[in-house]
Design goal:
The chain is mainly alpha-helical. The chain has one domain (1-481). The protein is built from 24 helices and three strands. Strands 2-1-3 form a three-stranded antiparallel beta sheet. 48% of the residues are buried. The model is unreliable at 212-216 and 299-304 (pLDDT under 50).
Length: 481
C-alpha cells in the first residue's frame, strides 16, 4: 500500500469516527485495530496491542493528574470563586472594570487550575450575569472571559503542556517554564486592549459605583475561639475602606499566589521535578483551603467568608480528577499505538519526504505546521489535533522537528499558542460553546464569535512575535539549565 493511501486510511478512520460523535479514545482504539491488523503482522500485532498500551503509560504523566487535582481542590472548596470576588473588590473606577476583573482573575486561576474549560466556565458563570445586568455589551463582556480562559494552556500548571512534553519525550519542566512569559504577555495585551477600547467607547462598559453593601456599609469583625465569641467590633471610615479593599486580597490572592510560587519556584530553582512540584502544589492547595476554613470559624468579617473545606469537597475533587485523568490516559495510550501504526505503514516517512522535497527553510516548515494546526483547530478539540499531528511534528528522529533541527521547546510553545487560538476559532472552537452554555439565552453564537475576534488577532500577534523572536519563549527555560 502506498504511503498516502495508508495515511488517508488511518487519519480518515479517526476523523470520521470522531465526527460521528465517538469519544476520542475509542476513535483512536478503532483506528489502532485497523492499522495494527494491516501494517503490524495481523493477529500477532493485535496480541501485542495490550503490551503497547501498558508501555505508553509512563511516570512522566503523573503531573497531569496532580495538576488536575490541585485545580479541582480549589474549585470544589470554592476558593477560586473567593479569589475572583477579592479581585473585584480591589479594582475600582477603571474603564471596563468587570472585564478587567475577568482578565486578572482568569490569569490568577490559570496559574492554579491548568484547565481552559474550567477557567472559562467559572468566570462566565460568576461575572457574565453581573456584566449583562450592568449594561456591558456582549463584545466586551464575553471576549475577555474566553480569551483569558485559553491562557491556562500556557501558564503552569498546564495539563496540556505536560501531555505534550511527555508524549514528545521532552523536558516537562522546560516547557512549563517556557509558557510563563508568552502567557503573561498575552494577559497584559488583553488588559491593555480592554482599557483602551472602553476608554474610547465608554458605552461598551458603563461605569458604576460599587455596591453600597460591600463598600459603604460598616464592617463588623468578630473574633471566635473554641466555639465562643471572644471579641467583637464595628468599624467605619478609613479602616472600613482598608478591610473592604485590601483584606480580601491578603486573605485570598496572596495564599493562592503562594501555591504558584511553590509549584513554579520549586521547578525553576531545581528543588523538585515536575512530578514532585505538582504533589507540593496539591499539598499547598489543601493547606490554603484549610487555613481559609480556620479563618472562617475564627475571624468573622462581614462580607468576607472562608472556604467550604470539608471531606465531601475533597472527595468530589478526587472523583472529578479520576474521571478526567482516566480519559486522558486512555487517549494517550491509544494515540501512541496510533503513532506506531503510522510509522510502520510508511505514512510518516512518506509525508516527511514530500515536505523535504519542497526545499523549505526551517522557518517555512514551522509556519506550515502552525497553519495545519490552525486549520485542524477549526474542526477538532486540542487533544485530538495534538495527537494526530505529533507523529509528524515531534515524535522520533524522522519527525519534521528533528530533520530540520528546530528548537523543540520553542516549537512546543508555538504549538500550545496555536492550539489556544483554535479554542476560539469557529465553527467548533471549544470555548465558544462553553461560553454559549453559561451565557444568557438571548446571546447568540454569532455574538460570541464576534466578541472573540479581536482577541484572536491579539493571540495571532503574539504567535507572530514568538516566530520572529524565539527568545521570548526560550530565554526563561534557558535559565533552568
Amino acid at each position: 500500500m502506498e504511503w498516502y493511501s495508508a495515511l488517508i486510511l488511518l487519519l480518515g478512520t479517526v476523523s470520521v469516527l470522531m465526527f460521528t460523535g465517538l469519544p476520542v479514545a475509542l476513535a483512536f482504539f478503532a483506528a489502532n485495530v485497523v492499522g495494527t491488523w494491516i501494517f503490524i503482522s495481523g493477529d500477532i500485532g493485535l496480541v501485542l496491542m495490550p503490551m503497547e498500551f501498558h508501555n505508553a503509560i509512563k511516570f512522566t504523566l503523573v503531573p497531569i493528574g496532580l495538576f488536575l487535582l490541585m485545580g479541582e481542590i480549589l474549585l470544589q472548596t470554592g476558593v477560586a470563586f473567593k479569589a475572583i470576588g477579592a479581585i473585584d473588590k480591589m479594582i475600582a473606577k477603571i474603564p471596563g472594570r468587570l472585564s478587567i476583573v475577568s482578565v486578572v482573575g482568569g490569569t490568577v486561576f490559570s496559574s492554579l487550575s491548568g484547565s481552559t474549560i474550567a477557567n472559562t466556565a467559572i468566570l462566565g458563570s460568576v461575572l457574565l450575569p453581573d456584566m449583562m445586568r450592568r449594561g456591558y455589551k456582549p463584545s466586551i463582556a464575553m471576549g475577555p472571559i474566553m480569551a483569558v480562559g485559553g491562557i491556562a494552556m500556557l501558564i503552569p500548571p498546564s495539563a496540556l503542556a505536560v501531555l505534550l512534553a511527555s508524549l514528545a519525550e521532552q523536558s516537562v519542566a522546560k516547557l512549563l517554564i517556557a509558557g510563563i512569559i508568552p502567557g503573561m504577555l498575552m494577559a497584559l495585551l488583553f488588559f491593555a486592549y480592554v482599557i483602551i477600547r472602553c476608554t474610547l467607547d465608554p458605552s461598551l462598559a458603563p461605569a458604576y459605583e460599587p455596591d453600597d453593601e460591600s463598600i459603604d456599609a460598616p464592617v463588623k469583625l468578630d473574633l471566635n475561639w473554641r466555639g465562643k465569641k471572644r471579641w467583637s467590633g464595628t468599624y467605619d471610615g478609613n479602616l472600613k475602606r482598608f478591610i473592604n479593599r485590601s483584606l480580601p486580597f491578603i486573605l485570598y490572592i496572596l495564599p493562592l499566589g503562594s501555591i504558584f510560587v511553590v509549584v513554579v519556584g520549586s521547578i525553576f530553582f531545581k528543588l523538585a521535578a515536575p512530578t514532585e512540584a505538582a504533589a507540593l502544589g496539591c499539598l499547598a492547595s489543601l493547606a490554603a483551603c484549610y487555613l481559609f476554613r480556620i479563618f472562617k470559624s475564627t475571624i468573622v468579617i462581614s462580607g468576607v467568608d472562608g472556604a467550604d473545606f470539608d471531606f465531601s469537597s475533597i472527595w468530589k475533587a478526587l472523583i472529578e480528577t479520576a474521571k478526567i485523568n482516566t480519559m486522558i490516559l486512555f487517549i494517550i495510550a491509544g494515540s501512541l499505538v496510533f503513532s506506531q501504526a503510522l510509522a510502520n505503514s510508511g505514512a510518516t516517512n512518506g509525508l516527511l519526504q514530500q515536505v523535504i522535497s519542497l526545499d523549505l527553510s526551517p522557518l517555512g516548515v514551522v509556519i506550515i505546521m502552525m497553519c495545519v494546526l490552525l486549520f485542524l483547530g477549526a474542526f477538532m478539540d486540542q487533544v485530538s489535533m495534538l495527537l494526530l499531528t505529533l507523529p509528524f511534528f515531534l515524535l522520533g528522529s524522522t519527525s519534521l522537528q528533528a530533520v530540520f533541527n528546530i528548537d523543540v521547546t520553542w516549537l512546543m510553545v508555538l504549538m500550545l499558542i496555536t492550539m489556544e487560538i483554535s479554542l476560539l476559532t469557529p465553527p467548533f472552537g471549544l470555548l465558544l460553546y462553553v461560553m454559549k452554555g453559561v451565557a444568557p439565552f438571548k446571546v447568540t453564537l454569532g455574538q460570541i464569535v464576534l466578541s472573540a475576534m479581536p482577541f484572536i488577532f491579539i493571540e495571532l500577534g503574539v504567535l507572530a512575535l514568538l516566530i520572529v523572536f524565539p527568545e521570548v519563549a526560550t530565554w526563561l527555560p534557558g535559565k533552568v539549565q
